[in-house]
Amino acid sequence: MTDHIDNPKLADNPDDNAEKDPENWTTGDEPMTGAQKSYLNTLCEEAKVELPEKGMTKAEASIRIDELKSQLNK
Description:
By secondary structure, this protein is mostly helical. The chain has a domain at 30-74. The chain has 2 helices and no strands. It has helices at 34-47, 58-71. Helix 1 (34-47) packs parallel to helix 2 (58-71). The longest helix is centred in the middle third of the chain and has 14 residues, at 34-47.
């Protein structure tokens, strides 16, 4: 039987390594996804800030989403 320590999906805290810093994403420099753009637009409306006109990367969008969620206490 394989020890659950060898399998991160079976670890006591499987979410410990689930999030990577967006700066380290291998696809972070690709354009943001449609879902990110939609969610970012919603958050910008709620925070009463303008959606950046410049196209954002996946990593930039993720960082901005986290900032707005924090600002809005979400």
